[in-house]
């Protein structure tokens, strides 16, 4: 199982380089999420977003980025909420091994 | 007319916290509700460090702010991200980061920048001290 | 709603002022506030392409420029006389203003914050 030393007090990775797809599975399991193809495309998009711009997006930029890359249907917050319930930007960032988005609504 | 003050200059490298204090005191004395809140950002959050001790023969700026705040019921907000980065930590954050200490002085509160946006939209004018 | 101009003047690598200024811009945008950016002085170096800072030097804030569109931050202004000799080395998304328009810029917002 997950070594708790790898994670901060809220469950985000301490060392972003530790992330692997297998680790994402474990992080998701801890959040009671079974990763599907739909989850993975958001996770990859988030990781690309972070590497491109060096920032974890809040909800609005996330939905815009999803709309642009995966189509308007998936860029709706309702869709993202079904995949990552509660706060999609926070939960998806956690599973994608990225820093918690700042000042997230 | 209600103002919001945004203070960004370090209490040590600038006079931002001093000037803002003088302005706030003058404004509140003239009209007690003229300032809705003071938001400290960047190095100005160091004003809320309870552990900092000025030499006895210099002004205790933190105390001066606390006095003003309690006299006029003026909220003093420190940006939480800027404060935590600089070790100005309240009890909640201390627990969150599993630390043994907290360092936030009384009379100050840690808030997100969202609080600043709210202040901004509910007052007529914002004045930055840097 | 108010419109805000964030004016960056500090070097992106000498302090975290640029970082904290940009953080504020992103938060304002996240809260659906209208926000524009303008750059002058040492902050202009933010625009130079192909920056590769080491962690000790700070985050690569240049990368964020391309992400601004996702926050609906549409305008990054500079004064045209401050443009680098070779525009090809600069981030292409800037709007450059002549001196008169640059001076006027600061009175067209309800508030200007400097970092």
TrEMBL record, chain A:
<feature type="active site" description="Cysteine persulfide intermediate">
    <location>
        <position position="104"/>
    </location>
</feature>
<dbReference type="GO" id="GO:0097163">
    <property type="term" value="F:sulfur carrier activity"/>
</dbReference>
<dbReference type="InterPro" id="IPR043163">
    <property type="entry name" value="DsrC-like_N"/>
</dbReference>
<dbReference type="InterPro" id="IPR007453">
    <property type="entry name" value="DsrC/TusE"/>
</dbReference>
<keyword id="KW-0963">Cytoplasm</keyword>
<dbReference type="GO" id="GO:0016740">
    <property type="term" value="F:transferase activity"/>
</dbReference>
<dbReference type="GO" id="GO:0005737">
    <property type="term" value="C:cytoplasm"/>
</dbReference>
<dbReference type="InterPro" id="IPR042072">
    <property type="entry name" value="DsrC-like_C"/>
</dbReference>
<comment type="function">
    <text>Part of a sulfur-relay system.</text>
</comment>
<dbReference type="InterPro" id="IPR025526">
    <property type="entry name" value="DsrC-like_dom_sf"/>
</dbReference>
<dbReference type="GO" id="GO:0002143">
    <property type="term" value="P:tRNA wobble position uridine thiolation"/>
</dbReference>
<protein>
    <recommendedName>
        <fullName>Sulfurtransferase</fullName>
        <ecNumber>2.8.1.-</ecNumber>
    </recommendedName>
</protein>
<keyword id="KW-0808">Transferase</keyword>
<dbReference type="Pfam" id="PF04358">
    <property type="entry name" value="DsrC"/>
</dbReference>
<comment type="similarity">
    <text>Belongs to the dsrC/tusE family.</text>
</comment>
UniProtKB/TrEMBL annotation, chain B:
<dbReference type="GO" id="GO:0097163">
    <property type="term" value="F:sulfur carrier activity"/>
</dbReference>
<dbReference type="GO" id="GO:0016783">
    <property type="term" value="F:sulfurtransferase activity"/>
</dbReference>
<dbReference type="GO" id="GO:0002143">
    <property type="term" value="P:tRNA wobble position uridine thiolation"/>
</dbReference>
<comment type="similarity">
    <text>Belongs to the DsrE/TusD family.</text>
</comment>
<dbReference type="Pfam" id="PF02635">
    <property type="entry name" value="DsrE"/>
</dbReference>
<dbReference type="InterPro" id="IPR003787">
    <property type="entry name" value="Sulphur_relay_DsrE/F-like"/>
</dbReference>
<dbReference type="GO" id="GO:1990228">
    <property type="term" value="C:sulfurtransferase complex"/>
</dbReference>
<keyword id="KW-0963">Cytoplasm</keyword>
<dbReference type="InterPro" id="IPR017463">
    <property type="entry name" value="Sulphur_relay_TusD/DsrE"/>
</dbReference>
<keyword id="KW-0808">Transferase</keyword>
<protein>
    <submittedName>
        <fullName>tRNA 2-thiouridine synthesizing protein D</fullName>
    </submittedName>
</protein>
<dbReference type="InterPro" id="IPR027396">
    <property type="entry name" value="DsrEFH-like"/>
</dbReference>
Automatic annotation (TrEMBL), chain C:
<dbReference type="InterPro" id="IPR027396">
    <property type="entry name" value="DsrEFH-like"/>
</dbReference>
<dbReference type="InterPro" id="IPR003787">
    <property type="entry name" value="Sulphur_relay_DsrE/F-like"/>
</dbReference>
<protein>
    <submittedName>
        <fullName>tRNA 2-thiouridine synthesizing protein C</fullName>
    </submittedName>
</protein>
<dbReference type="InterPro" id="IPR017462">
    <property type="entry name" value="Sulphur_relay_TusC/DsrF"/>
</dbReference>
<comment type="similarity">
    <text>Belongs to the DsrF/TusC family.</text>
</comment>
<dbReference type="Pfam" id="PF02635">
    <property type="entry name" value="DsrE"/>
</dbReference>
């Amino acid at each position: 199982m997950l070594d708790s030393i790898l994670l901060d007090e809220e469950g985000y990775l301490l060392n972003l380089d530790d992330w692997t797809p297998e680790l994402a599975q474990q992080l998701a399991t801890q959040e009671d999420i079974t990763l599907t193809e739909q989850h993975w495309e958001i996770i990859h998009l988030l990781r690309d977003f972070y590497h491109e711009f060096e920032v974890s997006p809040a909800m609005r930029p996330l939905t815009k980025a999803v709309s642009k890359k995966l189509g308007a249907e998936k860029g709706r917050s309702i869709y993202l909420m079904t995949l990552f319930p509660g706060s999609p930007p926070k939960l998806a960032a956690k599973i994608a091994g990225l820093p918690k988005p700042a000042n997230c609504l | 007319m209600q103002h919001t003050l945004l203070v960004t200059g370090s209490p040590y490298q600038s006079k931002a916290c001093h000037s803002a204090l003088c302005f706030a005191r003058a404004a509140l004395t003239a009209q007690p509700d003229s300032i809705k809140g003071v938001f400290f950002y960047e190095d100005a959050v160091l004003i809320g460090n309870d552990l900092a001790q000025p030499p006895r023969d210099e002004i205790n700026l933190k105390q001066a702010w606390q006095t003003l705040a309690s006299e006029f019921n003026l909220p003093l907000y420190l940006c939480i991200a800027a404060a935590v980065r600089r070790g100005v930590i309240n009890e909640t954050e201390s627990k969150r980061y599993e630390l043994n200490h907290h360092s936030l002085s009384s009379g100050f509160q840690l808030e997100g920048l969202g609080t600043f946006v709210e202040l901004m939209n509910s007052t007529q004018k914002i004045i930055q001290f840097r | 709603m108010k419109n805000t101009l964030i004016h960056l003047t500090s070097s992106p690598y000498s302090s975290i002022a640029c970082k904290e200024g940009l953080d504020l811009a992103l938060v304002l945008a996240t809260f659906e506030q209208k926000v524009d950016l303008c750059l002058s002085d040492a902050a202009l170096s933010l625009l130079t392409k192909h920056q590769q800072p080491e962690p000790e030097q700070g985050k690569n804030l240049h990368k964020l420029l391309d992400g601004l569109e996702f926050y609906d931050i549409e305008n990054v202004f500079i004064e045209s006389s401050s443009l680098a000799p070779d525009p090809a080395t600069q981030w292409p998304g800037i709007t450059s203003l002549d001196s008169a328009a640059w001076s006027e810029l600061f009175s067209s917002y309800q508030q200007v914050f400097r970092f």
